[in-house]
Structures are given as structure tokens and as C-alpha cells.
What we know:
5 helices; two-stranded antiparallel sheet; 2 domains
Amino acid sequence: MFELRVTPGGNRPIYRQIIDQVRQAVATGELAVGDALPSVRQLAEELVLNHNTVAKAYAELVREGVLDSRHGRGVFVAKRRRVYSAGERKRRLDQALNVFLSEALTLDYTPQQIEEAVTNWLDQMTTSKAKDSEVD
Amino acid sequence: MFELRVTPGGNRPIYRQIIDQVRQAVATGELAVGDALPSVRQLAEELVLNHNTVAKAYAELVREGVLDSRHGRGVFVAKRRRVYSAGERKRRLDQALNVFLSEALTLDYTPQQIEEAVTNWLDQMTTSKAKDSEVD
DNA sequence: TATAGTGTACTGCTATACGTGGTACACATA
DNA sequence: TATGTGTACCACGTATAGCAGTACACTATA
Lengths: 136, 136
């Protein structure tokens, strides 16, 4: 079962935390294509949040192509699809990478340690569930 | 010479962009220990910003241990030092890594492509200038 | 000593983001 | 018909981002 945890008052906004965790769950295969997510109000009640906050997170995930929403039915994990142009896609990766590496290097981790951490996480995230991902 | 570029109205706050770029410049060695940074007002004028915005970015970098500020003299690249406990340090790395990987995987990059991108950037960032970093 | 440049700390103001609370409507399903 | 769904509002309070201006203490240099 898909579990979500959230910490209000953290450095990261609540709806962002939801986005991060859903992204990760989809990436690892913990949530498979077609799986239903908890309804807006149900998840809001679980996490003691306002339903608008949950809806905001879901809406962004739909915009990103991670989720599909069907009016009156619920929200579901979407079939993999590209929502950004090639340039925009690369631009977003570069920015994310730049932010991450600057942070890691500032924390005084060595390049070796960083590469190792990345590899470990990727292994951990992708070996848990088999996934078929065809990419150009 | 150390150059900075900033885009207002972007998804990332201006003072954050300054922080990111200074972090990166220090990490790559483009800015060496002891180097002076542009003064608060000078940089503010260059970037057409308020000096408070620059001061805010510098203040955070001082808090992180990246910069030293000497009253009446200026701000300088600090000698490497740890400002976080071991636990906090790891916690921050994990969060940064989680955010980055979720983003990259959502963008539909494969683990192989991600590892390659990380390696390339680290090479590019660290081969430009030699750095001595002793880590436990 | 006087002056200029430095970091720092305020106050006030505007705009935006975040989150809550409530209401309402259209859709789907049993 | 009744219930649960996504979605779209509005109002409100709080926090963050950024600008503008002012002020003060420090440092260096003429």
C-alpha cells in the first residue's frame, strides 16, 4: 500500500513534499501505471490537511504528466509521456543537477562520495520493482 | 574574473540564484579561499538589484560556512569548515538527492543517463581547478 | 582627521506564495 | 437518487521575496 508522510513547517512546502513522494513512488514502481491514488479529500483527511493543498499537488503532477485525473472517478498514475520539449527537458535537468551538486559540494562531500550516493539511490529505487522504460 | 547572472521572475528567487552560483564558483575553484567577492552595493548595482537582496544571499552563505564577512572590509571566500552535525549533513544530502532524482526520473531520464550527467558535471566542475579537500 | 567604502540593521511598502476554511458545481457510479 | 469524485471559486491569515530609503559602526586611505 502507498503511504505518504508530510511534515508541516519544514523548509519544503507541504504540497511539494506530496509531489516529491508521488514522483518517487512512481519512479520506483511502487505505484504502477493505472494505479489509483487516494482521493483528494481522503488524503487530506489522512494527513490532516486542506483538500485544496492536496488538489494543488495533484494538479501539478497532472501538468507534469505523472498523473491522469478523470472527473468524478479519481486520479491515476499516467502512462509515461513527455510533456516538455527536448530543450526544456535538458534545461530542467541541468538546473536540478546544478542545484544538487552545489549543495552537495558545499556540504563538503567529495565527487567520489556524491557519485556513490547517486548510484546507491538509483539502485535502491530501481531494483525494488522491475520497470520497463523505453527511452530514445 | 567572477561573473554572476540573474533572471528575475524565474521559478527560483533571485537571492537563491546568487547563492547557487557562488556555491558553484567556490566548489569549482573559480573562487579560491581568501578571494574577495563584489561588495553588496557594487553587486547590487551590477545586477540592478536592491543591496538588501545581495546582503541576504551573502548572509546565508556566511551561515553555511562558504563565506566570511569582515565588517568594513568586505566578504571573502571562507576556509573550508563544517557547520552541520554529521546527522544533519547526511539528512541534507539525502533530501537534495531525493529531490534531484525524483525530478530527473520524472523528466524520463534513465538511471544510466542520470549517472552519466552527474559524472560529466563533476568532471567539468572539478578538473578546471585543482583542489585539495581532505574528508573523513 | 576627514572621507569614502564596507557590512549590517532597521522601517515601510507591495506583491506573491502557502495553507486553511468554506462553498459550489459537474461528473461518475452504485 | 445518493454518494464520492475532481475542480473552481472566494475570503482570510501568514510568511516570503524584493524594493526603497535610512542609519550606524567599522576599516582603510588620503
